[in-house]
Design goal:
Elements lengths: L1 H16 L17 E9 L4 E11 L2 E9 L4 E10 L6 E15 L9 E15 L6 E9 L3 H13 L12 E9 L1
Antiparallel strand pairs: 1-2, 1-8, 2-3, 3-4, 4-5, 5-6, 6-7, 7-8
């Protein structure tokens, strides 16, 4: 009687456990066990408007490099990603990177154009399909810009009376599409 009662109570839990479908990994190299994916997108981790290559030696951790164009030249970022639920269809992650995180562009006075470098930190989500190695990624980023960035911005406003069309926000957003190889 007890065994029957315990079995009946456990059935909903066992049935729910069968509902989970693990997404296909980005790609698995049979030699190293390292997953690799390439992304295209916009944002700091893509080097501006550019690309992103990511190596995952473990499903929870990745290293990446991004290279792209950022209004006045080429920008790059290198960093690490910690994936919180790597086997779920929606995978939250945290990131830390170093590279370009600010740009000043002055129309008609390119001698003041400059790219600034420093660390940036992010929180994001990956959206995986059930049977695909490809996925979408969006991220909210907090750049730690060097003091020189704000000093240069203030000097341009004060000394040259330059009015910027848009003030740089204290945060960034990035997004892109990744392809498993």
């Amino acid at each position: 009687m007890r065994t029957t009662l315990l079995s009946l109570l456990a059935m909903p839990i066992m049935a729910f456990a069968q509902d989970y479908v693990q997404p296909a990994p980005a790609v698995l190299s049979s030699k190293t066990g390292t997953e690799v994916n390439l992304g295209i997108g916009l944002g700091l981790d893509y080097g501006g408007i550019g690309g992103h290559v990511e190596l995952l030696p473990d499903p929870h951790f990745a290293g990446f490099a991004g290279l792209g164009y950022v209004l006045v030249g080429f920008g790059y970022n290198v960093g690490v990603v910690g994936r919180i639920f790597p086997n779920s269809r929606v995978c939250p992650f945290v990131s830390a990177m170093y590279g370009y995180n600010g740009v000043i562009k002055v129309e008609g006075a390119s001698k003041y154009d400059k790219i600034y470098y420093g660390p940036s930190f992010g929180l994001g989500l990956e959206f995986h399909k059930r049977s695909s190695k490809n996925f979408w990624r969006v991220e909210f980023l907090l750049p730690v810009r060097p003091n020189e960035f704000q000093d240069d911005l203030d000097a341009l406003k004060r000394n040259l009376a330059i009015v910027f069309e848009t003030e740089p926000p204290p945060f960034g957003i990035s997004g892109g599409y990744h392809f498993g190889l």
